[in-house]
C-alpha cells in the first residue's frame, strides 16, 4: 500500500511538471499555445521577432505525421525545451500541403505548399531558422541560417535552437561538435534514436 501511494505521488509530480498537451487544430496539426500567429509575411515576421528580442523559426508539419506528433508529445511537452524556445523564438507553423497565403522575402505571394517546394522542404517536421534581419532579395529557403530536417531526440532538438540563438552558424564550431560538447558538459552521450 505504501509503495502504491509513493508511486501515485511520483506520477502526479511527474505529470504536474509536463507542459499541457498541444491541441490538434482543424487542419490536423498540433497547436502549441506559444506558437506565433502572423500574416505569414516572412520579412515582417523576422522584424517582429527581432523587435521582441527573438529569432524567427518556421516549422513545417502535415496532418497524420507521426514524427510531428512525437515532436509535440515528447519534445515540446518538456518544459525545459518549450520554455527555452518560447522565450527566444517566434515559431510560425506551416502546413506542408496547406493553401494559406505566404509572402516570401522577394515579395512573391504563394500558397504554403508552393512555398514548401520553393524552399526545398520535403518532409515533416522541418524547421527553418531565419536570419536576425530580413535580406532584401532571395527566398526564405535561401536566407535560412540553419535547417533542422526531421524529428530528433530532445537534446539534439534543444541544442539546435540554442546553437542558432548563440549564432553558432557564424563561428567555426559545426553544430555536431557543439552538440557533442554540450552533451559532454552535461555528462551525457549522443542520442542514438530518432
Automatic annotation (TrEMBL):
Residues 1-21 form the signal peptide. CDD domains: SoxW. Keywords: Signal. This is Thioredoxin-related protein. Residues 49-133 form the Thioredoxin-like fold domain. It comes from Aurantimonas endophytica.
Amino acid at each position: 500500500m505504501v509503495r502504491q501511494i509513493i508511486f501515485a505521488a511520483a506520477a502526479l509530480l511527474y505529470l504536474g511538471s509536463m507542459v499541457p498537451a498541444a491541441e490538434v487544430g482543424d487542419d490536423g496539426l498540433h497547436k502549441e499555445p506559444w506558437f506565433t500567429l502572423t500574416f505569414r509575411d516572412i520579412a515582417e515576421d523576422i522584424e517582429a521577432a527581432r523587435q521582441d528580442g527573438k529569432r524567427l523559426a518556421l516549422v513545417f508539419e502535415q496532418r497524420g505525421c507521426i514524427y510531428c506528433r512525437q515532436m509535440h508529445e515528447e519534445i515540446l511537452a518538456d518544459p525545459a525545451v518549450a520554455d527555452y524556445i518560447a522565450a527566444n523564438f517566434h515559431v510560425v507553423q506551416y502546413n506542408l500541403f496547406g493553401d494559406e497565403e505566404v509572402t516570401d522575402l522577394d515579395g512573391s505571394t504563394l500558397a504554403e505548399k508552393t512555398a514548401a517546394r520553393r524552399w526545398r522542404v520535403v518532409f515533416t517536421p522541418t524547421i527553418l531558422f531565419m536570419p536576425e534581419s530580413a535580406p532584401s532579395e532571395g527566398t526564405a529557403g535561401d536566407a535560412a541560417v540553419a535547417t533542422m530536417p526531421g524529428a530528433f531526440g530532445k537534446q539534439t532538438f534543444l541544442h539546435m535552437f540554442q546553437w542558432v540563438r548563440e549564432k553558432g552558424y557564424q563561428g567555426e564550431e559545426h553544430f555536431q561538435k557543439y552538440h557533442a560538447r554540450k552533451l559532454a558538459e552535461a555528462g551525457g552521450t549522443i542520442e542514438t534514436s530518432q
